[in-house]
C-alpha cells in the first residue's frame, strides 16, 4: 500500500465523513502535472520545503507559482527529530508574503554573501539529481516530531477553513526545539506581528 493510500485510510478511519482522495504521484518541476494536481484544491500542505531557498529552481517554487495562479492557500511545515517548524501560510494573493520573499530572508539568516557558502551547504545536505524518483535521503524522522508538526499544521488549516478564529501563522513561522522545548517565531511580514 502506498503512503498516499495509507494516509487516506487513516483519515477515513478517524472521520468517515471526510472526503479524502489519495494521489500517489511523484512531482517534478514540470508544471503540467502540478497544474492538474491542484485543480479544485483550496488548501495545500507542503512539507519539507525549507531547503528550497538553497536549491535554485525547485519543485516547491513551481508549486507556489501555480498555487498562487489558482488561488490555492499553502501551509508549509517540516523538521527533523530535533526541531519542527510550521508556517508561514501563503494566501495566494498579492498582499501576502511569497516563497521568494521567505527564501531571501532564510538565506540571509543562514548565510552571508560569500558565493560558495550556499553551494557547499546544498551539496552537503541534498542531492538534486532525483527527477526520476530515485533519490537519496540523508535525513530521518521520528513519530513525535511528525505528530507535533502535523498537529500544528492541521490546527492552522481548521482555523483557515472554519474561520472560527484567525490563523496564527499568517506571515510567520514557528520553530519548536524538541530538545529544549524553546519556541522561535520568525516574522516574514507585518501581518504576522
In a nutshell, what does this entry contain?
By secondary structure, the protein is of the alpha+beta class. It has a single domain (38-192), classed as 3-Layer(aba) Sandwich (Rossmann fold).
Summarize this structure as a short list of keywords or feature phrases.
Rossmann fold; alpha+beta; five-stranded mixed β-sheet; 193 residues; 5 strands
Fold blueprint:
Elements: H1 3-14, H2 31-37, E1 43-47, H3 59-70, E2 73-80, E3 83-90, H4 99-110, H5 115-125, H6 143-162, E4 172-177, E5 183-187
Parallel strand pairs: 1-2
Antiparallel strand pairs: 2-3, 3-4, 4-5
Provide an overview of this structure.
The protein has 193 residues and is of the alpha+beta class. The protein has one domain: 3-Layer(aba) Sandwich (Rossmann fold), CATH 3.40.50. 38% of the residues lie in helices and 17% in strands. It has 6 helices and 5 strands, in the order ααβαββαααββ. It has helices at residues 3-14, 31-37, 59-70, 99-110, 115-125, 143-162, and strands at 43-47, 73-80, 83-90, 172-177, 183-187. It has a 5-stranded mixed sheet with strand order 1-2-3-4-5, sandwiched between helices. It is globular. The protein starts with a helix and ends in a 6-residue tail after the last strand. Residues 124-138 have low confidence and may be disordered.
Amino acid at each position: 500500500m502506498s503512503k498516499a493510500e495509507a494516509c487516506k485510510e487513516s483519515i477515513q478511519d478517524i472521520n468517515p465523513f471526510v472526503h479524502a482522495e489519495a494521489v500517489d504521484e511523484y512531482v517534478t518541476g514540470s508544471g503540467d502535472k502540478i497544474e492538474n494536481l491542484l485543480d479544485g484544491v483550496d488548501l495545500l500542505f507542503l512539507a519539507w520545503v525549507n531547503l528550497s531557498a538553497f536549491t535554485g529552481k525547485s519543485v516547491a517554487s513551481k508549486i507556489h507559482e501555480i498555487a498562487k495562479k489558482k488561488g490555492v492557500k499553502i501551509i508549509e511545515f517540516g523538521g527533523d527529530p530535533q526541531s519542527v517548524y510550521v508556517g508561514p501560510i501563503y494566501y495566494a494573493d498579492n498582499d501576502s508574503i511569497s516563497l521568494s520573499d521567505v527564501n531571501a530572508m532564510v538565506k540571509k539568516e543562514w548565510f552571508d554573501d560569500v558565493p560558495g557558502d550556499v553551494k557547499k551547504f546544498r551539496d552537503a545536505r541534498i542531492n538534486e539529481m532525483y527527477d526520476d524518483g530515485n533519490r537519496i535521503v540523508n535525513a530521518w524522522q521520528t513519530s513525535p516530531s511528525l505528530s507535533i508538526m502535523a498537529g500544528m499544521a492541521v490546527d492552522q488549516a481548521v482555523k483557515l477553513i472554519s474561520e472560527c478564529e484567525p490563523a496564527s501563522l499568517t506571515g510567520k513561522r514557528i520553530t519548536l526545539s524538541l530538545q529544549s522545548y524553546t519556541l522561535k517565531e520568525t516574522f516574514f511580514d507585518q501581518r504576522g506581528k
